[in-house]
Design goal:
It is built from 3 helices and 15 strands. It is elongated and about 125 Å long. The strands form 3 sheets. It has a 7-stranded mixed sheet with strand order 1-3-14-13-8-5-15. Strands 2-11-10-4-7-6 form a 6-stranded mixed sheet, with no helix packed on it. Strand 13 and strand 14 form a beta hairpin. It is mostly beta strands.
Length: 243
C-alpha cells in the first residue's frame, strides 16, 4: 500500500500580484509608494493625521486592535481675507502729497491706522470748520478735526462755517495721515453760513475723499438735510489763524 500523495503546494503568487488591500506587493513597506497617494484620496475627511507631542512617530490602534491603514496628511489652511480692490476709477494716494480736484482714495495704510486730520488753511479769525457725522466719530483738536482710523467710520461731511453772510477768499484744506497728504482747493465767494466742501466715505478698506464743489451755502439744518445728515450730530472747530 502506497502512502498518500501529499497535496501540491500552492504556486507562488506573482511578484506584483495585488494584495487583499489592492496594494502591489512590491510597494508594501515603501512609504513613498504611489498607493499611499491613492489611499490619501480615499481616506474619509473625518480622519486626521495626528502626531504625538513627544515628536516620535506613533501608531494609532483601532477598536479591533489593529493599526489602521495609513491616512493622507490633512493640511488645515486658515481662512485668509482677500483684500478688496480699490474703488473703480478712483486714484489711490499713499505716502505722498497730491492736489485733489474731484475724487481720490487714501491707500490701505492711511485708511486703516493712525489719525486722519482735516485742517482749513485760512489766515483770518472767526471762521469755523464743521464735520457732520454718520456712523463716525470726529474729535476737534485745536484748529483741526481728527478721525481715529482704527474706529468705525462711515461717512463724514466737512463744511466751512461763518457767522452770517461773509465773503471768503479762495483757500485750501489739507487732509493728512502721516506722509499722505491731500490738498483740496476751496473756492471763494459769499458764504451764507455753512458751506459743504468735502465728503469722506469708507468704501471697504479705503477712505474716499470727494470734493463737493457745491456753490450753495446756508443754515446748518438745511445743509444737513440736503446731504442726509442729522444736524444734531456734528463736530466743530473755531478761530483759525495761520501766521
Amino acid at each position: 500500500m502506497q502512502p498518500p500523495t501529499p497535496a501540491p503546494l500552492p504556486a507562488d503568487a506573482p511578484e506584483d500580484a495585488p494584495s487583499e488591500r489592492g496594494v502591489p506587493g512590491s510597494q508594501l513597506g515603501n512609504p513613498d509608494g504611489a498607493w499611499l497617494r491613492v489611499l490619501a484620496r480615499q481616506t474619509s475627511p473625518s480622519v486626521t493625521d495626528m502626531a504625538p507631542s513627544t515628536g516620535e512617530q506613533g501608531v494609532a490602534v483601532g477598536q479591533g486592535g489593529e493599526a489602521p491603514a495609513p491616512s493622507g496628511r490633512v493640511e488645515v489652511v486658515p481662512a485668509r481675507r482677500r483684500p478688496s480692490p480699490p474703488p473703480l476709477g478712483v486714484s489711490v494716494v499713499g505716502g505722498r502729497t497730491v492736489k485733489l480736484h474731484r475724487v481720490a482714495a487714501l491707500d490701505r495704510l492711511a485708511s486703516g491706522v493712525g489719525y486722519l486730520t482735516v485742517e482749513w488753511l485760512v489766515r483770518r479769525r472767526g471762521l469755523d470748520l464743521l464735520a457732520l457725522q454718520d456712523g463716525s466719530s470726529v474729535t476737534p483738536r485745536g484748529n483741526t478735526l481728527t478721525i481715529d482710523m482704527t474706529q468705525p467710520m462711515n461717512r463724514v461731511l466737512i463744511a466751512t462755517g461763518t457767522q452770517g453772510t461773509m465773503p471768503l477768499p479762495p483757500s485750501e484744506m489739507r487732509v493728512s495721515n502721516g506722509s499722505t497728504q491731500v490738498i483740496v482747493p476751496i473756492d471763494g465767494g459769499t458764504s451764507l453760513g455753512v458751506w459743504p466742501r468735502l465728503t469722506l466715505t469708507r468704501v471697504d478698506e479705503f477712505v474716499v475723499i470727494r470734493h463737493e464743489h457745491d456753490p450753495l451755502s446756508g443754515v446748518l439744518g438745511a445743509v444737513a438735510s440736503a446731504y442726509g445728515y442729522d444736524e444734531r450730530s456734528f463736530a466743530i472747530t473755531h478761530t483759525h489763524l495761520l501766521g
